[in-house]
Each structure stands twice: as C-alpha cells, then as structure tokens.
Amino acid sequence: MTQLKPILSHLDPILSSSTAAGKFKTSPYNLHRFRFHPRLTLWSFLFLLFIFIFFFFSPPSASSSGKRRSLQTAAFSPKARLSYNWEIKTRNSARTRSGSGFRVLVTGAAGFVGTHVSISLKRRGDGVVGLDNFNSYYETGLKKARKLLLEREGVYIVEGDINDADLLSKLFEIVQFTHVMHLAAQAGVRYAMQNPGSYVHSNVNGFVTLLETCKDANPQPSIVWASSSSVYGLNSKVPFSEKDRTDQPASLYAATKKAGEEIAHSYNHIYGLSITGLRFFTVYGPWGRPDMAYYFFTKDILRGKEIKIFEGADHSTVARDFTYIDDVVKGCLAALDTAKRSTGSGGKKRGAAQLRIYNLGNTSPVPVAKLVSILEKLLKVKAKKRVLQMPRNGDVLYTHANISLASKELGYKPKTDLEAGLKKFVKWYVSYYGSKKKSAI
Ligand SMILES: O=C(O)[C@H]1O[C@H](OP(=O)(O)OP(=O)(O)OC[C@H]2O[C@@H](n3ccc(=O)[nH]c3=O)[C@H](O)[C@@H]2O)[C@H](O)[C@@H](O)[C@H]1O
C-alpha cells in the first residue's frame, strides 16, 4: 500500500481535475452546453488522448527522470517504503563536504549504534546514506525519533530491507559508495529462542544479500560490520582475545554472528572485498536499545516493578564488559579510516584484500548487581530486586575484552567508565520519556 504513495502523489493533480470534471458533468448548465457542442466534446477527447500519449510514451526528460525512476523503483522494490523523491534525497545525503570524504552506506541507521555512527560521520564531512527497515522488534517510535535526529543532521534514511537485492543495487547505482558500515542485524541474545528465523533472515540472509551487491559494485566498497562479543560463547579464557576459539556459541544470535564472520571470510577470499568485523561488547548509552538490561532496568526501577538479576551456579557473579557508545563510535570510525580498498570489481577479484576482526570492549567487566546499584544511585530509587539463577537462555556468565589489537591498529582507547556512561544515559532517558510521557518497549 505504502509503495503506492509516490504514484498517488504523482497522480494527485489528475485525480483532483477528474473531480472537477465530475462536478462539471453533473451541473445541468454544463450538461446543457455539452449537448449543444458535439465538436467541443470531440476536441476535448482528442486533447485528453494527446496528453495521455505524451505522458506515457515520451522518454524521461532531465527534470522528470527522478520522478519516473522513483515510480519504477517503487515497483521493483515491494518491501521498500520509498518517499516520492527518495533518489534526490539519497544523492544529497551522500554528498561529501570535501573531495576526500567517504560516501558511506550505513545499514541499520535508525538503530542505536547506526544513529550515533551516522551523525559522527556526517559531522566530520562524510556523505552518509542510511538504510533501515524500521521493524517492530522494539518500539518503532524510538527509531522514528532517531530518524528525525538524523534528518536534522542532513542524513537521509531509505526505508527498506537489506534482503531487498533490487533496492541495494539501485542504491549503488545512485551513489558510488566508498564504504559500507553494516549495522543492520537482529540483535538480542535471549530473543533468539522466541524468534530464531529473524536471526537467520537478518544476520545470515541479509548479510549475504548485502555482500552480493558489494562484490558486484564497481568500484567495490570497503565494508565494516558489527559482529559481537557473543561469538566467544563458552570460551572461558579471559580476557577474550581475537585469537581465542569462537566455535562454541551459547545462543543462536552468537551462532549467526559467527556465521557472519565465516561468510565475510569467503567473500573476502573469492571476490577481494575488504572486510572488517567489529566484536561489540554490550554497548550502552543515550538513544540505546530498550531490549537491553540497563535500559529496561531503568524503566522498571522508575515504575517500581521488580527486576531479575541473574547469577551463575553457586552464586557466582554474572558480569559484562559494558562499553559506552561514544567509545564504540570512535572504534567504528577508526575502522573505516584504516580500511584498505577492496581489490575486486564487478564480481572479479584482482588481488588479496584486507580481512580484519577487532574486539571493541571496555576492558573492565562490571557485575550486573553493580550496574543495578549505579542505576539506583542515579535514579534515586531503590530497585525491587529478585536474584535468580541465570536461565538457560543463551546468556553467558562473563565477558571481558582484550583490546590490544584494536588499540594498536585502530588507536582505540575507551575512556568512559560505567558510572559516567550511565549518568549520560539516565539524563537522556529522563528527558526523552519524562517530557514526552512515552513508554519503553
Ligand atoms: O556484547 C554483545 O555482543 C551483546 O551485548 C548485548 O547482550 P548482553 O551482554 O546479554 O546484554 P543485556 O541483554 O543487556 O544483558 C546484560 C546482562 O544483564 C543480565 N540480565 C539480563 C536480563 C535480566 O532480566 N537480568 C539480567 O541479569 C544478562 O545476563 C547480562 O549479563 C546485546 O543485547 C546483544 O545484542 C549483543 O550485542
């Protein structure tokens, strides 16, 4: 239905003129005039026929090509909700401030990390085009609010899915992207038990569809994408190093991210795509994800609702290497800046290409119980806590990043401790929900 919007808006003047014609016909005065002027009726008919033939059979002129192509793309891209002049907006959004700037396609741009990365890229002068399907995994209102934020910064988001191969190739036709920052994914560890198909759809199928487009592009872009700390799974050697084993995923989410890393390897090997995977460690901060513990704990503490705090066997601590969004964004930009060019073009490899993986963590794990006590202090509300043994839901007990590789090669240096980061989050949360009386999730 929504894809018809551009078509209907295109036809609006015609629809309104036919309404006028309707009025004209029903007027006794005009009926009278028609009856007594058959030649006028004939000429009117021929005139309308001429207009019809002119519009439907003439080649697109320079000024109308944007509109005509929009109609075509709307037809070949049934999953995309494309606005009337989306191609023009896409082109403008991809414009760089200087000749040396990147043109970056950010998938998942209305997501948490996607929003922050897009804004940072745009502010430093790069061209940024967002792509997001605005799915309802969590409140779409938050995604729309992020979209507004991005629009104010000059970043346009195309509303479509990474599984839509036609839309992707159309985007590469409109803009010669130098880089792809691939952040669109089905996130969340525990939700994988409820909706396993969505993980395969986005994290495996969607990734392959995107890589297919990238390998066919000429020039091929360099790709940076979001893997996850969850690939370390049941690995018990800490801190987690990129050299450690990642063949024991504890959740389907982790398994699909690990699959992504292997898929990246094969596209790099066969087609010469330059690919960098970033293993994010429990990223948090303003404009974050409502499905994450720090976010819904805040909501529940404020509402006086009980929160569940997981612990391991024999009351062992469950802890995370919580990483603040601004630090992760710096890591993402550094990965883009140091990415070498892909070597292939049009689906053919011309030489070996770069393939990298980095941990982006904070290197200081914090127990979940401590996270809760920080929130209590910041919110000035005592939480209703229930401590229970971690259910078998895909969660792991502990994460801790070794970041020496990222620090050496990307200059990555996280600066924000959990208390400072949560302070910024809580400030944002209260201003976002407090003033607007919205509810999370
Ligand atoms: O680094 C990653 O790769 C992943 O990070 C994030 O996963 P997690 O580290 O599991 O974060 P999150 O759900 O906030 O749970 C935090 C802690 O709270 C505990 N937890 C959770 C829920 C609850 O009710 N009680 C509880 O104690 C829970 O046991 C855990 O110890 C992303 O969601 C994921 O998409 C992925 O990016």
Features:
441 residues; alpha/beta; Rossmann fold; 2 domains; 7-stranded parallel beta sheet; two-stranded parallel sheet; 13 strands; 13% strand; globular; disordered N terminus; binds ligand UGB
Plain-language structure description:
The protein has 441 residues and is of the alpha/beta class. The chain has two domains: 2-57; 73-284 and 326-362 and 402-415, Rossmann fold, CATH 3.40.50.720. The chain has 15 helices and 13 strands. Helix 13 (368-379) packs across helix 15 (418-436). It is globular, with a radius of gyration of 26 Å. Keywords: Isomerase, Membrane, NAD, Transmembrane, Transmembrane helix.
Give me a quick take on this structure.
The chain has helices at residues 5-26, 28-35, 38-57, 65-76, 86-93, 112-123, 140-152, 165-174, 196-216, 252-271, 293-303, 325-338, 368-379, 404-410, 418-436, and strands spanning 103-107, 127-132, 156-159, 179-182, 222-228, 275-280, 283-284, 306-311, 319-320, 323-324, 355-360, 366-367, 384-389. The chain is α/β, with parallel strands linked by helices and 441 residues long. The chain folds into two domains: 2-57; 73-284 and 326-362 and 402-415, NAD(P)-binding Rossmann-like Domain (Rossmann fold), CATH 3.40.50.
Largest sheet: 7 strands, parallel
| Euclidean distance between termini CA atoms | 26 Å
In CATH terms, the superfamily of the largest domain is: NAD(P)-binding Rossmann-like Domain
Rough outline: globular
Structural classification: alpha/beta
Q: Count up the helices.
A: 15
Give Rg in angstroms: 26 Å
Bound molecule kinds, no repeats: the ligand O=C(O)[C@H]1O[C@H](OP(=O)(O)OP(=O)(O)OC[C@H]2O[C@@H](n3ccc(=O)[nH]c3=O)[C@H](O)[C@@H]2O)[C@H](O)[C@@H](O)[C@H]1O
Q: Could you state the order of secondary-structure elements as H and E?
A: HHHHHEHEHEHEHEHEEHEEEHEEHEHH
Give a count of the beta strands, DSSP E runs of length 2 or more.
13
CATH topology of the largest domain: Rossmann fold
- The residue ranges in which pLDDT falls below 50 over 5 or more consecutive positions are 1-36, 54-76
**Nearest-integer average pLDDT:** 86
> What CATH first level of the largest domain would be assigned?
Alpha Beta
* Fraction of residues in H or I helices: 40-55%
Strand order of the largest sheet: 3-2-1-4-5-6-11
Under the CATH scheme, the architecture of the largest domain is 3-Layer(aba) Sandwich
Quaternary class: single chain
**Total separate domains:** 2
Strand % is 5-15%
Subcellular location: Golgi apparatus, Golgi stack membrane
Family: Belongs to the NAD(P)-dependent epimerase/dehydratase family.
GO cellular component, one term: Golgi cisterna membrane
Membrane topology: Multi-pass membrane protein
